[in-house]
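haha ok so turns out i had the wrong file open the whole time. this is the CORRECT one, sorry everyone. sequence first:
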Amino acid sequence: MNMNRQYAVVVKGLTFIILVAIVVPFAAHSRTAKPAITITQVPQFDEKGGPERLGTIKGKVQGADDCKDCKVVLFAYTNTWWVQPVADSPDTAVVNGKFESETHLGTAYAAMLVRSTYRAPATIARLPNVGGDILAIDRKTGER
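then structure:
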């Protein structure tokens, strides 16, 4: 084999190794990306809250491709965190990576990406931490 041909074989081999070193970690990362939830539209800030006044909350979900049975659970805060839109129907579906729901007004709002096995309480004093059935949480103050 002449020198130019040997050089070409070495360059091709190194190019392949470099591509593998770049592509494989990137591909692995994209499959194992941490689930995330983001509130993109928050209802207004309302100190009183209550059952009479409603607003719309919207958001998006990312990195939950392997969780086909995920759902969103929403909370509105006044004197405590109240599950939304109502206690007997607290689950919000994720459609094409997005969610939308009516919510009773409050001073702050939270969206949790959870597994379908998560059972939301009617009220909670403080938001839970990520872990177990709770995959991601976003919290925003109401729009002023």
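The chain is about 20% helix and 40% strand.
again sry for the mixup
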